[in-house]
Sequence to fold (216 residues):
Amino acid sequence: MDKERTYPSLEGGRLLPLVESFYTIQGEGFHTGKPAYFIRLGGCDVGCRWCDSKESWNPDRFPPVEIEEIVRQAAATPAKAIVITGGEPMNYPLDMLCNLLKDYGLEIFLETSGSSPMSGKFDWICLSPKRNKPPRDEFFPVADELKVIVETPEDFEWAEENRQKVLEAQRCGQCLFFLQPEWSRMKQISTAIVEYVKEHPNWNISVQTHKFLRIP
Fold:
């Protein structure tokens, strides 16, 4: 399928296919437990079979929304931090959205697979690499957090491959490293992750606390 047709520029980023937006608590990774306003954009060309937001994959399901309206809704909450996620948010130019959010003094966190070109300015970038469409090289130098989803023991090798790329790309070594059990395999894989992290203490464990707490 033609990517330009499936993921249009939407007036250079003035319009974006908004799936949902909501104020909640960040449930995973470094910022776990922090109040944040989530902006979920539609459209994903990665397509992980265990994805918990498959409804967001088809951008045609979500009429484009003006970014001024997206930001207005975000600014109406007590949130001090914004999480831009998807789908795959890097399928769209996000410079204008980020600039508007910054006008309100908000922190901006990005969650991305790194599969599409970088755009926008962020206070925190969580890179979550996927085998079926690996990250572009431009994401390794700027990642603040590498979060690898572990479904089987073979995923530890994939995690190390990406960790090495981050280390080679970052002189100051600011990136933090997380292994996160795939939710449907939590019972089967958690022990292996715990043992792996004990043997490789450069890694940390991330769990989806929002699912345990039953919040969005």
Observations:
- The two ends are 32 Å apart (CA to CA).
